[in-house]
Specification:
By secondary structure, the chain is of the alpha+beta class. The chain contains 28 helices and 23 strands. The protein is elongated and about 120 Å long.
Length: 793
């Protein structure tokens, strides 16, 4: 206590000195990675081109006073709200997961130890760091000694001894000992802050679905207003319709071109997937990342925290081979275990190795023997020792340093066993001198193998990805031999061929290694990012897992990034997926959920694209034709609700774990073309026959066009529902019954004219012909597309 009091009185700052440094801008502010604010999230979801186009159309409809035709805006509002709610939810959960940002530091102020928030630390503050503490800012040890774990920064799990004068990096953990350290860097100057600086920028979304949807919206936005202007001029200036009627017809054509329901469907399906995954302790921080993971063909794994738990365990205890005749193997092993247990249990400040040994003997009978003298481990001698209460003495550590010149007697056994675990030798010695050095010739008793604790589900998870055609690479900062041994145990292909990343000097070296090998050790943070970019350059979709600051550059560069909740702040914030329970076994659930979402979205999206293609083709047709455009916005809402909206949502939420094949846009369009072509033909037939041969008026022709378009939509629902199930049969009944019921019960709302006998005849003939043509065209295009996919694979 007196020594500690002396340290506190001689080190640290006075409150006035600390305040002066805060005023001078030398406080540890902005030490963590920040998530986007709620305001930024709202802005990014509201201020989109998609929303702008629909708001403009809604204002045009408002001018006519026909408020029922503004019903399409409900979909737009729902889509925006879902996006905002999901991102805000992810932000709040991420902020709660932040460990560093919510922790405190113990600093010496005014001669006493004081607890301070991290952002109140200043340059030259002296902080007290004990076992389990995370270093809050770059500092220099001024008193004491400790061992630190810098794996979150460097990727290497070995403990580093720190003495007065040594540097401590922010983000590392004190594993044992107590030190007083003076803060030398604050805020953005810190080592961890420099490495993770890129993580503060928002990561761009890599999503084929989003890219396709944005492309469709941009294309439609470029052509819709010129087409709308021409269509309006054609209807109004020709005298075919009044101003309000021409406006509504034009807006109907433009609204039909925008697949607004598809945006909502995509957001909803992915939001449902996110809710399901949250029940499995998976936090999804970006809607579209589950799609990306489902398309991944290369998975880069960081060893520590992903394949392993981050803890150490005793793999085995084995006697030394070739022992003297008086010592049997069993006797040597018993004596080695006795000494191991006594030394580990007597350690007042146990490291990972000591804790692993204690855990190994936790079920052993009796109490461990007491030690009368302990020789602490040091990085210089590479061993520790103890004298037991009965006077026997033992040393435990690296065989070369314990045995000295006698090491050659066990060298072959060491080299053989070292391939499986990190070795410690336990030896009987005569005693220790006053300086703690070994006296006499050590007698080797046995070896204890220490290795990273492998997650029990790791092998099963890696086997899943292998079965799914995903190549698994292990990328770690540890010794490549250690990484190779662990990778081989969990079934990584080619684990016996490991690469020391320090030998990869050029970009071509990296490309050759990534093409042939699967296990990489001694990989620096910048190299991890280089690996990801090189794989992407060669056409791969790459996922990266990690938990440390050293992983953030690679996590951000990857197409899909996955972090452990127990990892660093920077890794969690830059990652798109966070495994809250730190269990890599959750990954197959994410892939399965992504496949269900994408496969079902591809099937349902074709319903929406029919309307888009139909509206564009119809607008071009009626610019040239002498008739008024046959739809109003409310009628397009009716078609969208029963033949597109309801079926798409039901089909999109069904189970579907098939492997993803082909590209999203190609898969969708090939199923949309038959519906669009047949719908346009039906509309053309209704107008030609209705006006010229039957003398129908605009309301009657419009009614025929609405119902014929709905009929073609029903045929597409039938085709997408094969093979039929009870749910799909009920869905078809709702589609047909809902459309008929709306027309019969609310004809005024949807502008449906009463049917005449002639209209029934025309409807029946055109509907029958369109059904035959639709199914023939659908089957033909689907077969051609499937053949093209098989060729590309």
């Amino acid at each position: 206590m007196n020594e500690a009091a002396g340290i506190e009185s001689s080190l640290g700052l006075a409150s006035e000195e600390a305040q002066a440094r805060i005023v001078a801008g030398e406080a540890n502010v902005d030490a963590g990675v920040k998530t986007r604010s709620v305001g930024q999230i709202v802005h990014d979801n509201v201020c989109t081109l998609f929303n702008l186009v629909n708001v403009v159309l809604a204002l045009i409809v408002l001018f006519t006073g026909s408020y029922k035709n503004m019903l399409f805006m409900v979909v737009i509002v729902c889509n925006t709200v879902i996006g905002i709610v999901q991102e805000v939810r992810s932000k709040r959960i991420t902020d709660k997961l932040s460990i560093i940002a919510g922790s405190k530091a113990h600093a010496l102020r005014d001669g006493a130890e004081t607890e301070l928030p991290l952002d109140e630390l200043v340059r030259d503050d002296v902080v007290v760091l004990r076992r389990g503490d995370q270093v809050p800012a770059d500092a220099q040890v001024v008193n004491g000694e400790c061992r630190v774990n810098e794996s979150l920064l460097t990727g290497e799990a070995d403990l580093i001894r720190k003495q007065p004068g040594d540097a401590l990096m922010s983000g590392s953990f004190v594993n044992s000992g107590t030190v007083y350290a003076r803060v030398v860097h604050v805020g953005a100057e810190n080592y961890a802050a420099k490495i993770s600086a890129e993580a503060k920028e928002r990561k761009a979304v890599r999503s084929e679905i989003m890219r396709c949807l944005n492309g469709i919206i941009k294309f439609v936005s470029c052509i819709m207003f010129p087409l709308g202007a021409l269509l309006f001029a054609r209807d109004y200036l020709s005298g075919n319709s009044e101003l309000n009627s021409a406006i509504l017809s034009t807006v109907s054509a433009l609204v039909g071109m925008i697949p607004e329901g598809l945006i909502l469907l995509t957001s909803t399906v992915l939001a449902v997937a996110i809710v399901r995954l949250s029940k499995s302790q998976v936090l999804v921080q970006q809607l579209y990342c589950i799609e990306t993971l489902a398309r991944v063909d290369v998975l880069c794994l960081d060893k520590t925290g992903t394949i392993t738990t981050g803890d150490m365990e005793v793999a085995w205890v084995r006697p030394v081979e070739g022992a003297a005749a008086q010592d049997t193997s069993e006797a040597l092993e018993r004596e080695a275990c006795r000494a191991l247990r006594a030394i580990a249990c007597a350690d007042d400040d146990p490291n990972e190795t000591s804790r692993a040994i204690v855990a190994y003997f936790k079920d052993a009978e009796g109490h461990p023997e007491t030690c009368s003298r302990m020789i602490s481990f040091s990085s210089d001698k590479k061993w520790s020792g103890a004298q037991l209460s009965d006077g026997s003495c033992y040393a435990m550590g690296a065989a070369q340093f314990v045995l000295g010149d006698a090491y050659e007697h066990v060298r072959l056994q060491v080299e053989r066993l070292a391939a499986d675990a990190r070795l410690l030798l336990i030896a009987r010695v005569q005693g220790f001198d006053d300086q703690g050095s070994i006296q006499g010739d050590p007698v080797p008793l046995g070896f204890v193998g220490i290795r990273d604790q492998i997650r029990p589900t790791a092998a099963e998870t890696i086997a899943y990805f292998k079965d799914q055609g995903v190549r698994v690479l292990v990328v770690s900062g540890d010794d490549p031999r250690t990484v190779s041994g662990i990778a081989e145990k969990v079934g990584v292909e080619g684990a016996d061929r490991y690469v020391d990343a320090t030998t990869l000097k050029t970009e071509s070296d990296v490309e050759r290694a990534l093409a042939c090998d699967s296990v990489f050790g001694r990989v620096k943070p910048e190299q991890k990012k280089q690996f990801v970019l090189t794989l992407q350059k060669t056409g791969h979709t790459v996922a990266m897992t990690g938990d440390g600051v050293n992983d953030t550059l690679a996590l951000k560069a990857a197409d899909c990034s996955v972090a452990m909740a127990a990892g660093s702040d920077a890794a969690r914030n830059v990652a798109q997926l966070v495994l809250v329970d730190n269990d890599f076994a959750s990954m197959p659930k994410v892939v399965a959920e992504g496949r269900r979402s994408i496969n079902n979205l591809q099937r349902s999206a074709s319903l929406f694209l029919v309307k888009t293609l139909l509206s564009i083709a119809s607008a071009l047709l009626f610019i040239a034709a002498p008739w008024q455009y046959p739809f109003q916005p409310i009628q397009m809402t009716l078609i969208s609700a029963f033949t597109i909206g309801i079926p798409s949502f039901v089909l999109a939420l069904e189970p579907n774990h098939e492997r993803i094949r082909g590209r999203f846009l190609g898969n969708v369009i090939v199923k949309s073309i038959p519906g669009a072509v047949c719908s346009v033909c039906c509309i053309l037939a209704a107008n030609v026959v209705g006006y010229y041969l039957m003398g129908l008026d605009y309301e009657q022709v419009s009614t025929l066009c609405v119902l014929l378009t709905s009929w073609v939509g029903c045929n597409l629902v039938i085709r997408l529902s094969i093979p039929f199930t009870a749910i799909r049969t009920a869905l078809l009944a709702v589609v047909v019954g809902g459309t008929a019921g709306a027309c019969l019960l609310m004809p005024g709302v949807f502008c449906i004219a009463p049917f005449t006998p002639g209209m029934w005849v025309l409807y029946g003939i055109v509907a029958a012909l369109s059904a035959v043509a639709f199914h023939a065209l659908y089957l033909k295009l689907d077969a051609l597309h499937a053949a093209r996919i098989r060729e590309s694979e």
